[in-house]
Amino acid sequence: MHEIVKISNQMNTLGFRNFTSKEMDLFFAICSRVREQGTQELSFSFEKLRELSSYKPTSNDRFVDDLIRTNTKLMNLNVNFDDGNEYVAFVLFPTFRINREEQTLKIAVNNEFSFLLNELTNNFARFELEQFTYLKSSYAKTMYRLLKQFKSTGFFVISIEEFRETLDIPVNYRMSEIDKKVFSPIRKELSPLYDRFEIEKVKKKGNKIVQLKFHFMEKTAPKKIKVPLHDFTK
After folding, report:
1. Whole-Å CA distances, 173 to 11, 105, 178, 188, 210
2. What is the dihedral of CA 99, 113, 159, 75, to 10 degrees?
3. Are 175 and 209 in contact (CB under 8 A)?
4. Are 93 and 67 in contact (CB under 8 A)?
5. Segment 104-145, tens digit of pLDDT
6. pTM of the predicted model, to two decimals?
7. Helix (H) or strand (E) segment spanning residue 113
8. Per-residue pLDDT tens for 183-225?
9. Which of 14, 97, 147, 194 has the maximum number of C-beta atoms within 10 A of its C-beta?
10. Phi, psi dihedral angles at 69 (to 5 degrees)
């Protein structure tokens, strides 16, 4: 499998709040197939979606439940644009039809905002779905997407406030907890994908961390890497 996900930078910066790792896999598996397909309704077999998302459980009932939960969270996702004059909120997939008997999912992309997945010539992030689904931590998955947006520079800077918001880090997490529950899985899972991977904490007077700098260099010929299973809870 060599599926490529290609999305607008505007969508790539969305914080997928409360999404589990599995739900992220399902969503971006769908994105890999609806890109450059306009707004026509597309049909996916359960079998193909399982393959694309590296979905392991075999029960159809459980798979349907996971699809429904994914769509429910997508509908509640804060997808919006605000140019200072006009604020627009929308649902990316207005059609999300599951047929249990036929074991299919039918989807159509919102016509007005199809540019997030179609006709992308610049300002987009591109990554391999297989690598993405091998990552187990939702924090690592989000950082993987963000770093792909800056792969040409190998350098990414983000304020600590935006980092917390984008990765949906609990507000009560102290830095010691972020080190253990956020930075640890990010380093463990992403480091094998790079020849260089460093997280630099930028501090102000008073030793307060205000900014994070990510330094990274992709492997010239990355091998297929299977990240070992582990349990990092959010």
Report:
1. 26, 38, 6, 20, 15
2. -30
3. yes
4. no
5. 999 988 887 777 776 655 667 778 889 899 999 999 999 999
6. 0.80
7. none
8. 999 999 999 999 999 999 999 877 889 999 999 998 876 455 5
9. 147
10. -65, -40
> What are 6's two structure tokens?
């290609």
What average pLDDT does the chain have?
85
Q: What span, in angstroms and rounded, lies between the C-alpha atoms of 192 and 196?
A: 9
E strands in the chain: 4-8, 42-45, 80-82, 87-89, 95-99, 104-108, 124-128, 155-159, 194-203, 209-218
Q: How far is CA 2 from CA 33, 191, 192, in A?
A: 12, 21, 19
- What DSSP string describes 137-199? -HHHHHHHHHHHTTTTTTEEEEEHHHHHHHTT--TT--HHHHIIIIIHHHHHHHGGGEEEEEE
